[in-house]
């Protein structure tokens, strides 16, 4: 049986992440908690809204109510990436070559490693930012679709249109697909082609009883796991047209609660699943086998993260009851 080391915080915890083997927990108050030979705290923001891991640099990127974008190092030290006075930074993304993306209102910005900042203004508010896996390119989720911009070139953006409010965005690890989450309890995908300015096929992924707020690609990009249902909904992306005409896997089904967070294992086809009642379990794609990792707690799971070795899982909750699971026990 896996063992759980609890960490109880008096705050809504926005994100859990590992830097090296050190688990970090980013609180809505702006405190960055880490378990590094004891519980240590760094005050990063006056109100924290977003936190993502920058895999290339093994740091965290955070955005706050104070208009600041920060980089958090493994030792807890904080450095300022960018600042937009009197704005809330609720969307951040980490990109290649030290690039950092963030957005407020209708404006998305990318800060390059040399300090240069590029701006991209949309007609409606930007709701999600993601970097493509190859080349310095960003995708912006917005009303009626998404826009793809080359950061370093003055090229026309590629507009991916689909009616409705798009609230988040992700690229597949091989760059062949773009998927957005939508306000109307659905995902929408586009298969990108190699022609300039072109997109090929639409992919509609519907039937969710709630909004999809958590997405995670499997290690090789063959699967996309999602929250928003009583099970983790895992779409197949190994075929050339992605999930078109193929049913998703439904893993970890529970009748009375919703899946609120998902995180795929860094190497194996396994997903960790967090629920609205605080339970956490892992499920294997091949045979749907489940392992209970943590019994229900005080609040809904807001975030799950695997260590690079795949032996530890950190989980965060909206009630502050967090922890680290040692898979080996």
TrEMBL record:
It is found in: Cell projection, Cilium. The keyword Hydrolase does not apply. It comes from the Bacteria. Residues 266-327 form the Anaphase-promoting complex subunit 4-like WD40 domain. Keywords: Cell projection, Cilium, Repeat, WD repeat. InterPro entries: Apc4-like_WD40_dom, Quinoprotein_ADH-like_sf, WD40/YVTN_repeat-like_dom_sf, WD40_rpt. This is WD40 repeat domain-containing protein. It comes from Shinella lacus.
